[in-house]
Amino acid sequence: MTTLSTLKYHVQDADTLALIGFAYECFTPSCLDCEGEDALDARQLGYFLAIVDHGGFGKAAEHIHVAQPSLSQSIATLERELGVTLFHRSGRRTRLSPAGEDLVGPARRVIRELDSAAAAMNAVRGLRSGHVDISSMPSPGIEPLTSMVAAFCVRYPELTVHVDGAFTAEEVINAVRSGTAEIGLVGTSAPTLTPGLVSIPLERQPLILIVNPADDHFGDGTTVDASELGGSRLIASPRGSLMRSMVDDALATGVDASVVVEVAHRTSILPLVHSGVGHAVMPSSWADSAALWGMRTLTIQPVSQLHVAAVARSEQPTPAASAFLEIAKEYAATHDS
Asked: Distance from CA of residue 183 to its chain's centroid?
């Protein structure tokens, strides 16, 4: 991991300048040759992001092993150099100002570029280091994320992976666009269209019925017709979610099934089914986990599918992200059909 305290970042070109300078008049072309006190310190950006990520000065100072007074002084210096207030402080509460919110995405991209440069230099010396930030929706976060991360860790054991959760494709795409994540995994009811982003279709996951062991009357086959779900008790995501809309569409033929539990926490679904509360309709990525609980799954006919894709920004990714995207392409080659 690059040590931010050893780096000094100077704005060197118009494109990079735009990342930070769009919100701040103090970053003008005249700054391109700035030196000394007028140079933007990457350590300050790292401290700024630590406060954002950890929700306050105290936790950030503890996480990055810096005395809180030193952290506060560094941020005060950054605010003075930028001529804006980045945080509003009220007692122990800290929240971003509008200017601070504008700085988060550009700051992440600047730090990531520094990490990329350091990783490239390490590669020249025969070393491997770095990390990749991923944002994933729940079902793709089971598969294909598990298989891809496993392959990635085998091939690049020195690299690390950080995965954040998101409930909607829009949240994932926004994370990628803002620079919070380098790669996103989305599941949508139709092929993903992401203008300005690279999209790699990974696979299509048919909807399955995770069968309630206390109400298994579906025979010995591997499929179930939606009409056979009449009278069934179902566990589903809340209204407004993608999975709930897909469940509603699958049952739109007049099937008299009732949703008895709406649960936003996906981790509760398998325990609820196993406890006999009801059946669940989920993408096929859940099949292996259901099997571990001793529950069988049936593909629902007619088939509805979740389209799973990886998305990334079109500019050159960091070496770690580039390596992960290669894993994604290999996965797609054997699964997207």
From this structure: 7
Q: What is the pTM of this model?
A: 0.65
Burial readout 69-99 (b: 16 or more C-beta within 10 A, e: otherwise) = eebbebbeebbebbebebbeeeeeebebeeb
The size of the chain, in residues, is: 337
Number of Cβ within 10 Å of residue 25's Cβ equals 9
Is residue 4 within 8 A of residue 71, CB to CB? The reply is no
CB atoms within 10 A of CB 336: 16
Q: What is the pLDDT of residue 121?
A: 67
d(CA 173, CA 179): 10
Q: How far apart are CA 112 and CA 162, in angstroms?
A: 14
**How far is Cα 124 from Cα 126, in angstroms, rounded to an integer?**
5
Sort 29 into a burial class: Cβ within 10 Å, 0-12 / 13-18 / 19+: exposed
Q: Which residues pair with 312 in a beta bridge?
A: 183, 198
Q: What are the DSSP E strand ranges found in the chain? A: 87-90, 93-96, 131-136, 160-165, 183-188, 197-210, 223-225, 233-236, 258-262, 279-283, 297-301, 305-313
What average pLDDT does the structure give for the chain?
82
Q: How does DSSP classify residue 95?
A: E
- Distance of alpha carbon 9 from alpha carbon 286, whole angstroms: 45
Flag whether pLDDT at 214 surpasses 60: yes
Q: Are strands 87-90 and 93-96 parallel, antiparallel or unpaired?
A: antiparallel
The identity of residue 264, as a single letter, is A
For residue 139 the two structure tokens come to 């079902």
